[in-house]
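# step 3/5: fold
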Amino acid sequence: MRTFVLISFLVFILALTGYASWHLWRIAPHGWKLAVVTAFLVWMASFFIGFAFIEHLPIKAATVLYEVGNTWLIAFMYLLILFFLADIAAACHILPKTLLSDSLPGMLSVLGVVAFILLLGGIKYNHKYREEITIPTEKPLDKPLTIVMASDLHIGYHNRKAELGRWVDLINAEKPDLVLFGGDIIDRSLRPLVEGNYAEEFHRIDAPVWAVLGNHEYFSDIDGAEQFYKDAGILLLKDSVGHFKGIDVIGRNDRSFPCRAALGDLAAGLEGYTIVLDHQPSNLEETHLAGIDFQFSGHTHHGQVWPISWVTDLIFEKAWGHYQKGSTRYYISSGLGIWGAKVRIGTRSEYLVLHLN
């Protein structure tokens, strides 16, 4: 079954590649056709080469290949959308067919739109949004608390140490009492984190740092990921509870873990303000039934780019933003970092500042 799914996926990708390549060949003016299609296919190859061999390349080369190859994936998607819409418009006699065949203006228009989308998406990604929530509680706290929460940093070949340092500065500017990370701190490989000593940046955070594992920690190397968290001074909550100045933080193992404890068992006997860290926002009803006050999750990235955000909205009960079930409040983050190309279209990179008083 797995082999069938893989073959079907590859056939689907090849069909889409053929569709885009044929359109590029058709729209490019004479003398440009071979160069345009070859450039597209080489760009495509960089994605698959990077996926397969990136661990064997020098860090600088791996970084370039990662960013170039993954940017192709976004460009490919928008090329497909533009060509599909152009085909419909031409069939409906809205768009002249001559604009899609041997046309320099047509080619420049299509490539220009894709380039403009990528440029705006890069600008959008680099702007980090600050989401703020103030929640009054009748449960006793040692003092009013400011908690910074972030998910899906995906540090590695593309979100490098300098970028992580910028995020740490944003966190410290909030003067937090506690910092909580909701999983996927690591992108796909521990190598750049270890060689670049990324762990030292987390030691600059002026507050205790607690976290849970995400699915990418399991993909990369779970034992190595746990060692990195330890080196970074991060308290890792694995189906366990941390207590801090009147609040109880329940950190759940990710769904990728073969077996994890029931939330009701973890919450039993807790009397403080309860916060759940669960990387994936699945089975939100369980949190409500366990009497939890607040849940923070990530994982979805809200699709990263439109229209994939529509897909995550269909898959998850809540794919992004504020949510509430009874007295339980939720925030599903679209993530501070990102997987793949550093592009956001119709979504945002964010961190949450929670005030409890």
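# step 4/5: annotate
Residues 59-91 form the longest helix (33 residues).
# step 5/5: archive (pending)
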